[in-house]
Amino acid sequence: MTLSVIIITKNEAAHIADCIASVRFADEIIVVDSGSTDGTRELAAGLGAKVTLTQDWPGFGRQKNRALDLATCDWVLSIDADERVTPELAQTIQQELVNPRAQAYKIARLSNFGGRWIRHSGWWPDHVLRLFKRGTARFKDVAVHESVQTSSAIVTLDSHFLHYPYADLETFIAKINHYSSEAAAMMHARGKTTSVLGATGHAVWTFIRIYLIRRGFLDGKEGFILAAMGAAGSFFRYNKLLLLQKDKINK
User: Fold this and answer.
1) Strand, helix or coil at 161?
2) 101 and 32 in one domain?
3) Single residue among 143, 163, 183 that ends a domain in this structure
């Protein structure tokens, strides 16, 4: 069985080399880039990846489907630039594809924040469906929080990805700002509405869910920061939705 790895990128020069190095066992590595200015494409091409540049940004789901459409192997592994396949996971995948038990597989992610591996806060085990037989699955066509959709039975692999989502707090804040805008636009398009009280309630509940219910307090000060940032992201998302509602009413 042959394996394609697909990666979408924009300004991932800090990550792309280590990401590609971790999937060297694959038969082809496909990178679809949406306009990097930091040398990401050149680095990826120099490491043997097949690089495609797109002039627009259609959202995460559609962009990943573009990468999927370029895959030519029997199986596809989707990985983000800030993720790494561990040697144990690489071995697990190769062994599994010799005699597959299913057509789709979930893989856990162990994420690092502030130099700490986060094992609570809702961050672990964070199973994501990323390995599947080509032709049996597609990414959901959404702007953010895209996921693989399949009607096939799903098996969970024992090994995990390593995930480095935020280089620093500034990067975290920037991503929250970007994702909250995208999420608010999606909710607005679906006709969802909110209020000031609703936005505040969502933020408070998010903090409680992450820090207390999901035991973020066991992740130390990093767990508190994650809970606070999660609450802030929720607050931003619903307040942006509130402003979109107001703009629609005023038109």
Assistant:
1) strand
2) yes
3) 163
Judgement on whether residues 76 and 112 belong to the same structural domain of the protein: yes
**Residue 63 structural domain:** 3-163
Which residues of 25-168 form beta strands (DSSP E)? 28-33, 50-53, 75-78, 83-85, 104-113, 116-118, 128-133, 137-139, 148-150, 154-163
Contact between 154 and 105 under an 8 Å Cβ cutoff? The reply is yes
Q: What distance in Å separates the CA atoms of residue 95 and residue 37, rounded to the nearest whole number?
A: 38
pLDDT value at residue 144 = 76
Report the chain (251 residues): mean pLDDT per 10 consecutive residues. Answer: 97 97 98 97 98 94 97 98 98 97 98 96 96 97 86 96 93 93 92 94 98 98 97 96 81 60
Looking at 133, 163, 193, the residue that finishes a domain is 163
Are 122 and 52 in contact, with CB atoms under 8 Å apart? no
CATH number at residue 80: 3.90.550.10
Tell me: the pLDDT tens digits for 180-238? Answer: 999 999 999 999 999 999 999 999 999 999 999 999 999 999 999 999 999 999 999 99
pLDDT of residue 142: 82
Phi and psi at residue 32, in whole multiples of 5°?
A: -110, 115
- C-alpha–C-alpha distance, residues 204 and 153, integer Å: 37
Domain count within the chain? 2
Q: Do residues 204 and 188 touch, judged by C-beta distance below 8 A?
A: no
**131 & 218 share domain:** no
